[in-house]
Amino acid sequence: MKTSHVTIGLTNPKSPTNVGAVMRAAGCYQVDEVKYTGQRYAKAAKFHTDTKSATRTIPLSSVDSFLDNLDSDTKIVCVELAEGATPLPRFEHPEKAMYIFGPEDGSISQDVADRADHVVYVPTVGCMNLAATVNVLLYDRLAKSDTLDDSEELIRSSRDNRNHLKVKSVEA
User: Fold this and answer.
1) Model confidence pLDDT, tens digit, residues 32-62
2) Which domains does the chain carry?
3) pTM of the prediction?
4) Angle formed at CA 52 by CA 50 and CA 58, multiple of 5 degrees
């Protein structure tokens, strides 16, 4: 039985391309839902990069606030280049989390950061774009998970149908 629950919160996302790429990442890393605030995305064109059609299985919804109607055991984790934040490699992910990301041309609001259980950042030189940051965060969560599926079946079911690559055994 799945006990974890992951929600991605996008603060007033700037482009449909980024939202589409976030939805693809959400599908790859089995995110439960994606929410966004602001008006820019709603006015933008349909997805450009949700090539796996994740929106068919992962809800994408507009909300006024990420902080409303959260289960009491859901931890709020802001992901932002913020002074005093914890570097992602040193962060232990909660079982149930609402990860909130700022827009590429702005930041998470101070009142949201003040209500967060954790604020983390990816220790890069310069900032990554929104979709890249979501991918890195979700990969970090997977890499630190104790439920990693490292089966050959996962590889076969996940790769492109034109990919039949196999690694030959190396004998010592």
Assistant:
1) 999 999 887 665 544 444 555 556 678 898 9
2) 5-147 (3.40.1280.10)
3) 0.87
4) 80
